Amino acid sequence: MAESSPTSTKARKTRIYSIEERPLMSSSSGPLTEDLQCSICLDVFIDPVTTPCGHNFCKTCLNKCWDNSQTCKCPYCKVTFKIRPDLKINTTLREVVDHYKKKSPEKKPEVLKKPEVLCDVCEERKLKALKSCLVCQSSYCETHLEPHLRVAGLKKHKLINPVRNLENYICHKHERPLELFCRDDQTILCLVCDVTDHKNHNTVPIEEESEEKKTQLMKTQKDVQQMIQDRIKKIQDVKHSAEVRKRNTEKEKAARVELFTDLIRSIERCQTELLEMMEEQQKAAEKQEEELIEELEQEITELKMRNTELEQLSHTEDHLHLLQIHSSLCSSRNTSNWSEISVKTDESLEPLRRALTQLQDTLQEKLTLTVSTDLKRMQQYEVDVTLDPDTAHPQLILSDNGKQVRHGDIEQKLPDKPERFDTCVGVLGNAGFSSLRFYFEVQVKGKTDWALGVAKEYINRKGKITLRPSDGFWTVVLSSGYKFWACDDPPVSLSLRVKPQRVGVFVDYEEGLVSFYDVESRSHIYSFTGQYFTGKLYPFFSPEPNNGGKNSTPLIIKSVNYNK
Question: Which residue ranges in the chain fall short of pLDDT 50?
């Protein structure tokens, strides 16, 4: 190995100073804190700037460094710039620093200074060592280092920046300085190792390997800085989405409050009008009853007087008088036929029924309007869904465009891939979604059995499968032509006014919401709420068995009709 002069040794020492002398961060600070540290002042960045070579420093620190030098070099990699760069504050990095300071103000990074190395030769008051010699395995102050810079034999010794653990820089096998790096075995060698155990290997001076490693570190640092910027951008996107969603939620809440306030007022108004009408009807009925009772009592009085006359006449001895008045007493009087008159006790219930029916229709109309508004909003998140043939059960037949699936009775000879369902007659969409919201529609018209919904990416696809959230499925099912179920934990029987012909499926990933809608009647079918999603969610389709041709109609993925 060529002899190193003090000048070249000093130059090499200066060149690799940033690696050998770079202070370490405390374990509590973590690697992120170290990435936010200026290598000049050894503190967290203040107004960070980035050099053309990609390294970061405090703006004041870098300007002072260049003001005190005739050339403009990067303090880290020593790249020289012919023209002094115009330094601009790295706003992205400054935001990261500000975020770190706000998040952990009490954990201000503390730099762990290297322990001071003292001269091994000084006897009374030991001075600070300037260099350590790997051959002598001793450290020397400026005075006692002088022979190594003057004596020819000592000039050949390997000098490095002062360190305490000199034994780590010496080959334990040959007791020689570690000066080479074997790229084949990725290990550090001495000169004796090079000519014995590593003969014909690709070996280079450790300084050369260090420079290459620094180049790799610089690339890694750029990658890390890009990752930081990507995550800052992601934070900004998430915050923006959260703000938009919050504003939309507030608008929706205000609209719902206004709607239900109107409904409550309408109910209260109907209740007041109904009670007033019933009260008026009650008063009219009572008046009619009083008049009837008065008329009946008057007739009873007249009949009693007649009865008395008849009684007296039946005992008379005056035959001539009896014959003269007999016809007048026995003739019919002007009395009412009360057998034809009845009192209706339920007559007042009919207006009540009509009023309640009208109120119910009003409520249903407003609820339908609300659901229709919600559905239109959800349809804005429509995604393009096609079926994945690699996941389809062997008995399922897919259309060429991947938009239809039906049960074919006969099992096809297909590769038994890990992603393919082998018992459940199901198929997944070709793409998974982990976006904030997505929506798709499926035509189910003409079918007696089907299952629709979404499923996690890593669900079990082999053997018997239960469609429920705990197993990674969120679905609604039709069976036997009229039984509707939400496959929740436990399953929920659904009572629908009409049989859906087209079903819309909406997912709000962040809210943990999966909702199903009858698109034609603009009505809500069922919602899974308070769910927790991880990974991607895939649309799930099951046309169910053919059932002798009774259920041969395919499930068809349809595009949203925005004109409705």
Answer: 1-31, 106-112
